[in-house]
Amino acid sequence: MSVTAPAGFTAAGVTAGLKKSGGLDLAVVRNLGPLTSAATVFTTNRCKANPVIWSEQVMRGGVVRAIVLNSGGANCYTGSIGFQTTHATAEAVAGRLEISAGEVLVCSTGLIGEQLDLGKITAGVWDASLALHAGSAASADAGLAAATAIMTTDTTPKQSAHTSPAGWTIGGMAKGAGMLAPGLATMLVVITTDAVLDSGQLDTALRQATRVTFDRLDSDGCMSTNDTVTLLGSGASGVAADPAEFAAALTALCQDLTLQLQADAEGSAHDVAIVVQGADSETDAVTVARAVSRSNLFKTAIFGNDPNWGRVLAAVGTTQAVFDPYGIDVAINGVQVCTAGEPDQPRELVDLSPRAVTVLIDLHAGAATATIWTNDLTHAYVEENSAYSS
Amino acid sequence: MSVTAPAGFTAAGVTAGLKKSGGLDLAVVRNLGPLTSAATVFTTNRCKANPVIWSEQVMRGGVVRAIVLNSGGANCYTGSIGFQTTHATAEAVAGRLEISAGEVLVCSTGLIGEQLDLGKITAGVWDASLALHAGSAASADAGLAAATAIMTTDTTPKQSAHTSPAGWTIGGMAKGAGMLAPGLATMLVVITTDAVLDSGQLDTALRQATRVTFDRLDSDGCMSTNDTVTLLGSGASGVAADPAEFAAALTALCQDLTLQLQADAEGSAHDVAIVVQGADSETDAVTVARAVSRSNLFKTAIFGNDPNWGRVLAAVGTTQAVFDPYGIDVAINGVQVCTAGEPDQPRELVDLSPRAVTVLIDLHAGAATATIWTNDLTHAYVEENSAYSS
C-alpha cells in the first residue's frame, strides 16, 4: 500500500503515450477530504521547471485537492508554451474532478528542453479521471499504478506505508534514479495521510523529515530541476495525531523511501553510507560526508571493491570543516584502515563484495554526526546516461 | 625540449623500482645558477602529503637548488615515518649534489596511505646523481627522461618550451591524468627559466599564470593531496626579462601544458571547453563553468555524443551566480540549442563526434568571461579507477 493506504485518497496510473516505452506515464492522486491540508518541499535549483513554478503558486492558495504527475518529459526550459501546458494539465484535472485548477499540483519528470504533447496529456487525464471514479480507486492496486506511472529510469516502484496505533495512517510513493542530489528535496515524492493536521503542522513535520532523509541522499551529485516532495492531509481518520509521533513516523517513512531510491540508483552496484562522527557541528558532518559522496575517484574505487581510503581523505581535505587533517580515523565495513591520519589495519582485510558499504569517518572535533547515502560509479551508470537521453 | 631548454639546468629520470611497471619513476631537476630563484604553488587540499609539508618549509628558506620527484607513491597519510622518508630523500639528493637538504624540493605522486621504500629511493637518487654529472644532463633527452619518470596513469610525457627574442627561455614538464581539479594548482609541474628574475618576480608571474590555466582545468572534480607547481630561475641567460613579457610567455606555456593534461585525462574521449560569457564577474563565470564541468550527467551525455543541454542548465541552476534562469543562451559546437531559456535549434544539428567540444553559455548578466577545461565521463575512466589502485 502506498498513497491509497490512508483514508480519503484515491489514485490512478494510466498510459498517456508520453513515454516511448509505452508504459504507464500519468498519475493522479486525489484528496477527498474532509481536510485539504498540504505541504511541499521544492528543488532549490534556480532553473525550475514549469510544473514547479505552477505548484508554488498553488501552494500560496493553501488548498490542494489533487496532484497530477507525468513521466516522459520534464517540461523544463520549454518557455511560455511549456507553462501553458502545465496550466492546461491542471485545468483538465480540475474540469474532470469538478475542482479548481488552483487546487491541483503538477509534477513532471523526464528530458529537459522538449515540449510535452498536451493532447496526450489531456487524453491521459480523461482516462485517469475514469479510473478515479471507479470503485477500486482507493485500492492498493490503484496506488501501485500511480507509483508505477511516475517511474523514469527506475526499475521498481517505491512505496511505503505506516499505521499508528492511534488510528491514523501515512502512505507514500517516490520516483528517482538519476539526478539524485538534494537541494531541499530530490525526486518526485507524494505522501498522504488521514491524520487530522493542518497545513502548518504538515509543513513542520515534512521539513523536519526531508532534512534528514531525502536531503541526505546524494547518488550522483546532480540536482534536478523538477524535484518536489508533497504531503497531503485528508483528515479522514478523524484522529488528531500527536505532532511528535507523526513527525517521527513521517521521518521513518521518508527514510524507507530514501533507501529504496538509493537501492535503485542508476547502474549502482553498491549502496554506500558515509557516516561522519566526531564533527564540530551537524553542518560540518554533512559537508564532509557529501564531499566524499561526490568524489568520482572514491565512487569508482568502491565499484572496483577497492578500499582506497586515501581517496576518502583527499575528499575530506577539500572541505572547510573543523578538523585536524592528521587526527582523522577511517573505517570501511568495520575495518579501521586509518587511525590519526596513519595507516592502521591492512586494506586487504576490507570486504567490499556485499552491496552494503559503510564508511565511518571520525573527525575527533566534536560530538555531531550525520550520514549521507550514496552509490558507486559504475559502467552501468555511464552506459545508462550516455546511451539514452533522459 | 622541456626543463633542460633554459641554460643552467640539468635533469635526470631513472628507475628506482617504485612503480610496479618497472618504468622510470624518479626524476631530479638541478638549478646550476647563478641565481637560485624559485616560486611554488601548492594544493589547497588540507590533507597535504608529506612532500608538500616539506617543500613548504624549503620555500621559507628561499633558496632552491634542486627538486626531486617520484611516482609510484604519494607519501600522503603515512605519518611520521613518511615525513622521515621525504626528509631522507632530500638529504640523499643534497649529499650527492653537495648542497643543503633545505634547498631541495620534494614531490611525490601515486597511491595514498602506503609507505615509500626509502632504500629504493636512495638507490634511485644515486643513479640520478650519476646521470646529472654526465655530459648529457642538460640535453633534451635528459629532460624527456625526467618528464617520463613523473608519469603515473599518464600515457605520454608533457613538455613545453618557449624562447624569447630577448634571449631568455622557459621550459616545463607536467604530469597528471586523474585527480585533476585545482585548488591553487593541480598535478606536478616543474618549470625552469634562465631569465634574470628574483623569486618575488617569479612568484607574481607564476600565480598570474596558474590562476587562468592549471586552476581552470577540472577533469574529474577531484583535488589531489600532492599538487605542486614549481618555477625555478637560474638567471643563466644573463638577460633581465621584461616582467610583462615573461608573465605572458609563462601563461602561454602553462596553457600549453594544461591542454596536454586535458588531452591525456584518464579514459577521456572528449576535450570539453566550458566557456561562460556575459557573466557579472569572472568569479561567477568560473563558478558556473565549474558546476557544469562537475556534472556527471553532463559528462556522460558528452561521452554518448548527446547534446543534452538540459543537463547544462540543471548544473547552472545549482549556483548562486548572477543570472536570470530564463535569460540564458546555450550553444554546443556552434549550434545555438537554447535561447533565453527556450529550445532554439534542434539538438540533432549538433555534431559531437570530434574530440574537441565547446559549450558556450551566455548568462546575459555582464561582461565577464571564463573557460574551464574538462573531459567527458567514460567507461574507460570507470575502468581505470576501479580496476587499479592509484
**CATH top level label of the largest domain in chain A:** Alpha Beta
Q: Total strand count of chain A, please?
A: 15
Q: Hey, which two chains have the biggest interface?
A: A-B, 63 and 63 residues
Euclidean distance between termini CA atoms of chain A: 29 Å
Task: Provide the residue-averaged pLDDT of chain A.
Answer: 91
Q: How many structural domains in the coordinates of chain A?
A: 2
> Rg of chain A to the nearest angstrom?
22 Å
Bin the helical content of chain A. 25-40%
Which overall shape of chain A is indicated by the principal axes computed on the Cα atoms?
globular
What order do the strands of the largest sheet of chain A run in, or round the barrel if closed?
Answer: 13-12-11-14-10-15
Instruction: Briefly note the CATH topology name of the largest domain in chain A.
Output: L-amino peptidase D-ALA esterase/amidase
The SS-based structural class of chain A is alpha+beta
Q: Estimate the strand proportion of chain A.
A: 15-25%
Poorly predicted runs of 5 or more residues of chain A: none
H and E string of chain A: EEEHEHEHHEEEHEHEHHHEEEEEH
Function (chains A, B): Catalyzes two activities which are involved in the cyclic version of arginine biosynthesis: the synthesis of N-acetylglutamate from glutamate and acetyl-CoA as the acetyl donor, and of ornithine by transacetylation between N(2)-acetylornithine and glutamate.
Binding site for substrate (chains A, B): 152, 175, 186, 266, 385, 390
Catalytic activity (chains A, B): L-glutamate + acetyl-CoA = N-acetyl-L-glutamate + CoA + H(+); N(2)-acetyl-L-ornithine + L-glutamate = N-acetyl-L-glutamate + L-ornithine
Enzyme class (chains A, B): transferase
